[in-house]
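Dear colleagues,

For the upcoming journal club I promised to circulate an example of a predicted protein-ligand complex. I picked one with nicotinamide-adenine-dinucleotide because it came up in last month's discussion. The inputs are reproduced below in full, followed by the predicted structure.
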Amino acid sequence: MAATIIDGKVLAAEVKAVAARDAAALKEQGISPKLVVFLVGENPASAVYVRGKAKDCAECGIDSIVETLPETTTEADLLARIVAMNADPTVHGILVQLPLPGHIEEKKVIEAIDPKKDVDGFTPVNIGRLQIGEDCFVPCTPAGALYMIQAAGVQLAGKDAVVVGRSNIVGKPMAMLLVAQSATVTVCHSKTQNLAAKCAAADVLIAAAGQEKLITANMVKPGAVVIDVGMNKNADGKLCGDVDFEPVSQVAGAITPVPGGVGLMTRAMLMANTIKAAQWVLQAQK
Ligand code: NAD
């Protein structure tokens, strides 16, 4: 039996509709949510992502400013601009599009963002707060993946979850979110032994390795929920995930497609995080 498709288009629209409603409510109370995105250099994929973010903001009634800076921008210049945005009370969210040119240290730049405006959830403060279960900005991709699992009606408590990938922006925060939902979580990575057997034991399998067709049908437990975070280009230059979609969807109970899956949720969650940042400002005024 073919798996249920967890539709990122429908769910992202749902998240964005809530963001739009909340943006309107904030405006009625005198706060116009605003996101500032820094784009440094000429990376074409980054330019596409940033345009997408600005479009999402427009759809949700969130003001956005894209600061497009040349490849030659110095680290000191970028840091000074971030500090200025931190101090600007009309700015609620700050995002630096990665990757940055090689002469700029990403870690330093991320750490310069005020954690209260860190809508990507990449600063050590937000990562730490996520770890100890405090209110924080959750990185958009794992937040979107969790939303999809929950929207599929999965009760995570007591379930065995496997996350393939341990990056700071996807794998690790994904694992923390699943632990917080009382799943039993195994994190796999490039040094993991017997990956197939570990994946095949998962009730919920998250693929976030960046390897086309890494997850094949024999690695999936019948009825499992499979979330494909991967964004790869196949030999034809087409976008594909980490999961061998057709055969796996014959085994899984529910599955997310690529495109049309987690990528759309990532974008939507950025809107939700920006609203949250503006709501914090409103609460602080009360
Ligand atoms: P990364 O390269 O930082 O991390 C990849 C992780 O996968 C590493 O921990 C590595 O150990 C593990 N890995 C790699 N090959 C493996 C293998 N053969 N077996 C087991 N583990 C393996 O990548 P990332 O930034 O975490 O992104 C992962 C994937 O998700 C990429 O395809 C990326 O493009 C995609 N991504 C998608 C979104 C989205 O919005 N859908 C957002 C961020 C990243």
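Two points we might discuss: The pocket of nicotinamide-adenine-dinucleotide is lined by residues 141, 164-167, 169-171, 188-190, 192, 195, 208-211, 214, 229-232, 262-263, 266 (CB under 6 Å). The CA atoms of residues 121 and 139 lie 5 Å apart.

See you all on Thursday,
B. R.
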